[in-house]
Amino acid sequence: MKKFYLTLEETVNVERFLPPEDPLGELSHLEMGLRRFCFENNRKVLIKLGNKRKEILLDPDISLILEELPEKIYHLLTGQTVELDFPESCLTLCFEAVDIWKIDCIWQEYGYSHETKRFSLERLQVLYVLKNFLNGIVSKAVKNHYISDSEKEEFMQSIIR
């Protein structure tokens, strides 16, 4: 079985994206805080799976899925299929439960070329990586005063339910 890695790498300055805005005031303090954190502390994020590796960005790639990530982790925990889509980087990861111990991951790159590859992964290792990655980002957002500790706790609760 292969190992799944999702790690924050070095800081990057990308000028092509505008800072997050909420002119109509529709976003909660938590949602806006996480978006601002990702934008102002942008980093490369390395996704590694078997012989495949791809660098994506904290903003916009991760910030686009961050708010739904706790729920997706919960779905994986309960044996449901989960898709993580990174449209800015032309990558989709689809996690399918095989049994209580194993998950199949379909790595799908699209754009100029199209490539699909299937990997067999340990379910607990995938859950551990996703939870730690999410907790690391949210903890840094708390440490840098983008969100409060109570907002973090409430946000992370949706994994446990």
Task: Describe the structure in your own words.
The protein has 161 residues and is an alpha+beta fold. It has a domain at 4-78 and 123-155. It is built from five helices and seven strands; from the N terminus they run βαββααββββαα. The protein has helices at 29-40, 58-65, 69-77, 123-143, 149-160, and strands at residues 4-11, 43-49, 52-57, 82-86, 91-97, 102-109, 115-122. Strand 6 and strand 7 form a beta hairpin. It is globular. It starts with a strand and ends with a helix. The relative contact order is 0.18. The mean pLDDT is 93.
Q: Whole-number radius of gyration?
A: 16 Å
Q: Strand percentage, roughly?
A: 25-35%
How would you classify the helix and strand content by structural class? alpha+beta
Shape category: globular
Our count of helices gives: 5
Give the tally of β-strands: 7
Helical residues, percent: 25-40%
What's the end-to-end separation, in Å? 29 Å
**Average pLDDT level:** 93
Q: Write the H/E string, N to C.
A: EHEEHHEEEEHH
Low-confidence stretches: none
Largest sheet: 4 strands, antiparallel
Within the largest sheet, what's the order of strands? 4-5-6-7
Give the oligomeric state of the chains in this entry, treating copies of one chain as homo and distinct chains as hetero. Answer: single chain
